[in-house]
Design brief:
The protein has one domain: Class II aldolase/adducin N-terminal domain (L-fuculose-1-phosphate Aldolase). The longest helix has 20 residues, at 164-183. It has seven helices and seven strands; from the N terminus they run αβββαβααβαββαα. It has a seven-stranded mixed sheet with strand order 3-2-1-4-7-6-5, sandwiched between helices. It is of the alpha+beta class and 204 residues long.
Length: 204
C-alpha cells in the first residue's frame, strides 16, 4: 500500500462527505516506524503525497513540511495503541452538538442511540475544551483517550484503528448515532448502562 497516496484519497473522500470544510480536520497514517500527517493550512480534500509531513514514532520530524497543529494528538494515539495505523480527526456537526449538550470530564461519554455504534465504537470519552493546537488540549486528550475514538467538547472527533476502513466505520457510526439523538431532541431514549455493557462484549 502506498501510504501517501492513500492519505490523499481518504482526504478526498472525507471532503466529499462534507467533513473537510475549509482547512479544518486532519488525518494521519503509520507505516512501520514512520507517521505521515496532513499538513497545516491545506484542505484535507486537496492533499498531495509530496506535501505530507513525516515523523518517527518519537515525534522527530523527517522532512520540512509543517504538520497539522494537532499532530501531537495523533502521535499520542500511535504511542498508546501500537496496533493503530490510521487516524481521522474531523468536525462532524451532530457529534459536536451532542458534546455541547453532554459535557466532558471523568467517566463522561457520548450517549449511544444504537447498538451498532456501541459495538463498533465502544465507549467514547469526551475530552474537555481547550483551544485547538494548545498544550491544554493535548493534555486533556491524553487523559480521556478511548479505545477506538475520542470526542472533543465543542470541537470534533478522533477515530482510529488498524485501517482507514475501520476508522471511517467508527466515524460514521458515531455521527449517525449523534444525528439520531439530535433528531430526537435530546429527549429520546438512549441505551442503558446494562444494555451497553452487553453490547461491549460483542464485536462487529
Amino acid at each position: 500500500m502506498n501510504i501517501p497516496e492513500t492519505l490523499s484519497q481518504i482526504g478526498t473522500q472525507l471532503s466529499s462527505m462534507g467533513l473537510g470544510t475549509s482547512t479544518s480536520g486532519n488525518i494521519s497514517a503509520r507505516d512501520d516506524e514512520k507517521i505521515y500527517y496532513s499538513p497545516t493550512g491545506t484542505p484535507i480534500g486537496k492533499l498531495t503525497p509530496d506535501g505530507l509531513a513525516m515523523s518517527d514514532l518519537s515525534g522527530a520530524f523527517k522532512n520540512d513540511n509543517k504538520p497539522t497543529k494537532e499532530w501531537g494528538m495523533h502521535l499520542a494515539v500511535y504511542q498508546k495503541f501500537p496496533e493503530t495505523n490510521a487516524i481521522i480527526h474531523v468536525h462532524p456537526v451532530h457529534t459536536i452538538a451532542v458534546t455541547m449538550r453532554t459535557g466532558s470530564g471523568t467517566n463522561i461519554v457520548l450517549p449511544a442511540s444504537t447498538p451498532q455504534c456501541v459495538m463498533r465504537a465502544g465507549l467514547v470519552p469526551i475530552a474537555p475544551y481547550a483551544p485547538p493546537g494548545s498544550s491544554e488540549l493535548l493534555t486533556g486528550f491524553k487523559n480521556h483517550l478511548g479505545l477506538k475514538a475520542t470526542a472533543l467538547l465543542n470541537h470534533g472527533l478522533f477515530t482510529y484503528g488498524l485501517t482507514f476502513d475501520k476508522a471511517m466505520g467508527i466515524l460514521e457510526e458515531i455521527e449517525e448515532s449523534c444525528r439520531i439523538i439530535c433528531l430526537a431532541g435530546f429527549e429520546g431514549r438512549t441505551l442503558t448502562q446494562a444494555e451497553t455493557e452487553i453490547l461491549l462484549k460483542r464485536k462487529m
